Amino acid sequence: MDRIMTSLGCSRALRFLFWAAWAALWFGGLYGCFVGARVLAANVHLESYGAKLAVMLYFTFGFGCGLLALAGAVCLLFWLAVARKVESGRFRRWRMASWIALGGFIPLLLLASLTALGVNRPRPQPSEEALGVALPNLAQRWNGRKLVVLGLDGLSWKLLRPLMEEGRLPQFKRLCDQGAFGVLETLSPTLSPPIWTTMVTGKYPEQHGVLDFTERTFFPLPYFIRVLPTGLGLNRLYLTLSRFGLADRSLVTRRARRTKALWNIFDDAGMHSVVVGWWASWPAETIRGVVVTDHVNVARMSAYRELGMKATSSPATSFVGDVAPIDLLPELLPLLQDPQLLSASDILRFARLNEKELRAVADAAHYSRDNRYSIIKFELATDLTNYRLGRKLFEDSPWDAFFLYLPGLDGFQHHFYQFRFPSEFKSVDPDELRKYGESINAYYVFLDGLLVEMLEGLDDNTYVLIVSDHGIEANPDYSPGEGRGYNQYASGIHTETAPGVFILSGPGVRRNHELRGASLIDITPSILALLGLPVGDDMPGRVLSELLSPEAAEGFAAERIPTHDLGYSPEISGSAAAADPRLLDRLRALGYFD
Ligand SMILES: [Zn+2]
User: How far apart are CA 56 and CA 33, in angstroms?
Assistant: First the structure.
């Protein structure tokens, strides 16, 4: 290459520039591979999906850079050759072409290689015919039992146990007495969207495809690139691109999910489901029953916006995909809790505040990690909203399976942990301790109250499952007011060593029985088996048959099929239909948006 350039009469400076650019790309690529290999060596553990992902991305990235280096070399050579001819006056009209070659070809190549990185490209699963397997008719398998799943983010035995012993959580206590319960092992890292999706798919995140809180999008290729490597200064690059409107970061959507969730399988079985507030459920799927996505929750969406993650839809975009069926919107919207309209007595349940402080609560207009008042307001409004939506559908809508997700507890535990367990920290301000010492406990009592309201009068043909994605523990690096990021505001954190909770009661389930060794990957296969439905061989978890009483366990065996996902595609499943213009006019008249 050097010789060719010399023969073309390139100056030393040009030759140097060429080799420097080439080396930067090439060694960048090698570095990417090196980082990937190191991460792989440190984490060959299946559950560490974050590490597997990093390896995959860095390898692809390194490989992409290497290819790019070669392509760049060819481009540059072409340019040099043409530039030389142009100078000699024989190919003057090629001047423009030479600039296009250099200026246009390289970014195009960059985009092409980024497209190759699109690990989340939705691909439909093969059909039954293509695989030559016939799946059983699920409607004939369903045993007619019903299911309630309450997902309480961050629910932890560390707090649950002492409060139950003190008699402050009668409903949790009753459910434990009537059922089986235990620690639920979690995955690493404990990111809510992947984990809550694992809970209802029975697949690891690298299988189901929901990998993070957000998706990054590049506008020329809006759909293909969802997850890209960070580090290596790439975050800065995305940020810069987004400033020019070329990239975007939004909350993860259901389109990332490549496999069926429980409610899709239930739909196959002819069952009706109600799903409220679940992670990565937008755009809402059209299933038998109702799906209310997390995007409807205005309090939650505004909190995420403050954290730099915006929802893909909003009132301004006509509630596209927020609820299915969409004609339920007028009934549901009045149930949304506006954080600004919470009463003083609502707030005083969770913090001992004086008049002046209560005014400060009222003044906190936005969610902010630095402002504890705003945390109380927004987390509470979020849960009240999801709860009311769920409660309404619980009563008014026919369902065989009911899923409700409440995220608020996790926020409380992140921000008020040091006041619940002050001895785990070097120093805690006594004045703050007086205000917030009971905040987390009060939230558990609040949740217990919701359970009483909702679960009263359920028949004994229904399984009730309470699950959490992880627990909570002290953040050893908590340093308020110093440093930056997470450690500045989160005294409570969750890692894979802070396992979650499960409590299951229902027909045939052992009573007051503590079960060990359950993992959240086991939840979906266990639910399927309890309802008489077959378990997919592509679900790595196991059926927790030891949950059953000896009589119920007799002759109990889960049917197995290769997969539930034949023919499934996130694109085919459901629609993101915009609301009828007449419906929107009605909502506008009611003042929901302008
Ligand atoms: Zn969580």
Answer: 9
Alpha-carbon span 41 to 44, nearest angstrom: 6
Tell me the C-alpha distance between 244 and 403, whole Å: 40
Residue 511 has pLDDT above 80, yes or no: yes
Average pLDDT, integer, range 111-133: 58
Q: How far is the CA of 272 from the centre of ligand 1 (A)?
A: 27
Q: pLDDT tens-digit profile of 50-109?
A: 555 655 666 666 666 666 666 766 766 776 666 666 666 655 666 666 666 666 656 656
How far is ligand 1, taken at its centre, from the CA of residue 191, in Å? 6
CA of 408 to the centre of ligand 1 (A): 10
Asked if pLDDT for residue 586 goes beyond 70, the answer is no
Q: What is the pLDDT of residues 535-561, one digit of tens each?
A: 999 999 999 999 999 999 888 888 999
Q: Ligand 1 centroid vs 493 CA: distance in angstroms?
A: 10
Least confident residue range of 29-33, 53-57, 512-516:
53-57
Q: How far apart are CA 385 and CA 332, in angstroms?
A: 10
pLDDT at 243: 75
Instruction: Report CA(195)–ligand 1 centroid distance (Å).
Output: 8
Q: Ligand 1 centroid vs 424 CA: distance in angstroms?
A: 22
Distance 525 CA to ligand 1 centre (A): 21
| Distance from Cα 19 to the centre of ligand 1, integer Å | 48
- Rounded to the nearest angstrom, the distance between the alpha carbon of 33 and the centre of ligand 1 is 31
Distance 153 CA to ligand 1 centre (A): 5
pLDDT of residue 292: 94
pLDDT exceeds 50 at position 225: no
Q: How many residues can be counted in the chain?
A: 594
Percent of the chain with pLDDT over 70: 71
Supply the pLDDT for residue 567. Answer: 79
Written as one letter, the residue type at 250 is S
Mean pLDDT over 484-490 rounds to 75
| CA proximity to 196, closest of 52, 472, 407 | 407
Hey, what amino acid is at 348?
Answer: L
- Pairing verdict, β 180-185 and 513-519: parallel
Query: Distance, CA 413 to ligand 1 centroid (Å)?
Result: 10
Q: How far is the CA of 196 from the centre of ligand 1 (A)?
A: 8
Measure CA of the first residue to CA of the last residue in the chain; give whole Å: 63
**Rounded distance from Cα 157 to ligand 1 centre (Å):** 14
User: Where is mean pLDDT largest: 80-89, 310-319, 432-441?
Assistant: 432-441
What distance in angstroms lies between residue 468's CA and the mean position of ligand 1's atoms? 8
Helices (H) and strands (E) counted in the chain, each on its own, are 24, 15
Contacts of range 130-139, beta carbons closer than 8 Å, 24 or more positions apart:
131/562, 131/566, 133/561, 133/562, 133/566, 135/561, 135/564, 135/566, 136/534, 136/559, 136/561, 138/265, 138/268, 138/269, 138/270, 138/533, 138/534, 139/268, 139/269, 139/270
247 token code pair: 């990239």
CB atoms within 10 A of CB 509: 19
pLDDT at 283: 85
Residue 414 CA to ligand 1 centre (angstroms): 10
